[in-house]
Amino acid sequence: MLMDNLNRDDARPVISLGNGDPTLFQCFRTAAAAEDAVLDAFRSANYHSYSPPLGILPARRAIADHLNRDLPYKLSADDVYVTIGCAQAITVTLEAISSPTANILLPRPGYLGYEAFAAHRQIEVRHYDLLPKRVGSPCGNVFSYEHLEKIAETARKLGILVIADEVYGHISFGSTTFVPMGVFASIVPVLTLGSLSKRWTVPGWRLGWIAKNDPNGILKETGIVNSITTVLNVSCEPVTFIQGAIPQIIENTKEDFFMNIIGILREDADICYNGIKEIPCMSCPSKPEGGMFSMVKLDPSMLEGINDDLEFCIKLAREESVIVIPGVAVGMKNWLRVNFACEPASLQVGLERMKAFCRRHAKNKNEDPYEVIQTGNCSNTAGCPGT
Predict the structure, then answer these.
(1) pLDDT in tens, 193-236
(2) CA–CA dist 240, 248 (Å, integer)
(3) In the chain, fewer beta carbons within 10 Å around the N or the C end?
(4) 341 closest CA partner among 276, 261, 274, 281
């Protein structure tokens, strides 16, 4: 819908601060080792066959070893199922737990893919509302060890498993270190969902996984493991030569690649946070410390002819050729979801266009708040959760 509202006569390049695909920018090109691994797997002619439903063994073993680096116990290849990106990992997991009486507890804001498939399978959705300062993706926060431990203890008391979507795992650049939820699997069983798409910046390769962190065997006893394998047995598999490349991708990608990506994202997060502070009708609860997104509070009462976040995004696309996602799409009315995983110069241009748009639509043009804020006489944090 937003793309349909772009002005085709605007000669300026479209700046997308909407989707989480950093491959649009050369600075986020994946590691040469990853590209070489795919070429080697393809040219070997060893991976032109159908894949087994659960994934080929070398890929499952390599993913298990990769995850084991952060865990107090060891996963085996039997604990890993290869999927077509994290999206299929989500659908397989929800299919496996679905039943006429099933329900799922989801955070708000969150990823609406869970809501859509739960509705499709008639799984009752229940929400817990969190302030954006305390939410991970899409808010850019990284949960501490202590916070995750409390989640595990709460799930244990409720008698439920935890689905840990860690597609942004290790993409942290603040003061809090990433801790995988599987660390707490001795407290509560955890299904970890992940993929290559974000950390290796290759979303188009569509390679994800489900890992069962279950040292106490609860998922097997309750039939969840059998349900997952049953669903995968009637599902499509990821491209076989991409699976064949996994061992080399994981082994040969140097830490320098990851640190470079983290450095760019840290710079982008600073640019985004500081740029939003210069726009009086917007506020950001906290500077992002991980992931690729930030949730920004919008105050439509300060704008002329704009009633809510959806109208803001439609008009922004039409007038400035900038795409941001309305918060209502992730369950937060009058918020904006901003993707900052861009080339830094493009991000700055996008924020300047947003600032110009808000200035043009400001209700009180006689007293320009954009000038006042630069003198330090105006605060843009009023009404911001967590402040």
Answers:
(1) 999 999 999 999 999 999 999 999 999 999 999 999 999 999 99
(2) 14
(3) N
(4) 261
pLDDT at residue 50 tops 60: yes
**Looking at the predicted structure, is the pLDDT value of residue 291 above 90?**
yes
Asked whether the beta carbons of 266 and 136 are under 8 A apart, the reply is no
**What's the confidence (pLDDT) of residue 3?**
86
Helix (H) or strand (E) holding 83: strand 80-83
For the chain, report the end-to-end CA distance as a whole number of angstroms.
33
Side-chain half-sphere exposure of 160, counting CA atoms within 13 A: 13
Cα distance between residue 372 and residue 280, in whole Å: 9
Above 80 in pLDDT, residue 44? Answer: yes
> Measuring CA to CA, which residue among 322, 324, 268, 261 is closest to residue 14?
322
Q: Give tens-digit pLDDT for 157-204.
A: 999 999 999 999 999 999 999 999 999 999 999 999 999 999 999 999
pLDDT of 11 above 80:
yes
Reported as type and span, the H/E element at residue 202 is none
Please tell me whether residue 313 adopts helix, strand or coil conformation.
Answer: helix
Task: Answer whether 110's CB lies under 8 Å from 330's CB.
Answer: yes
Question: Would the pLDDT of 95 be above 70?
Answer: yes
Q: What are phi and psi of 100, to 5 degrees?
A: -60, -25
- DSSP secondary structure, 286-311, as one string: S---BSSEEEEEE-GGGBTT--SHHH
At 162, is the secondary structure helix, strand, or coil? Answer: strand
Q: What is the pLDDT of residue 135?
A: 45
Tokens of 276: 């939003």
Task: Transcribe 254-268 into DSSP letters.
Answer: -HHHHHHHHHHHHHH
Between the CA of residue 322 and those of 10, 305, 368, what are the distances in Å? Answer: 11, 18, 23
- Backbone φ/ψ region at 28: left (φ over 0), alpha (ψ -120 to 50), beta: alpha
Report the largest interatomic distance among the alpha carbons of the chain, rounded to a whole angstrom. 70
Cα 349 to Cα 17, 193, 298, 338, 358, distances in angstroms: 11, 34, 20, 14, 14
Kindly state the DSSP code that residue 205 receives in the 8-state scheme: G
- State yes or no: cis peptide before 107, omega within 30 of 0: no
State pTM to two decimals: 0.89
User: Rounded CA gap, 109 and 135, in Å?
Assistant: 8
DSSP H/E element including 370: helix 369-375
The single-letter DSSP state of residue 30 is P
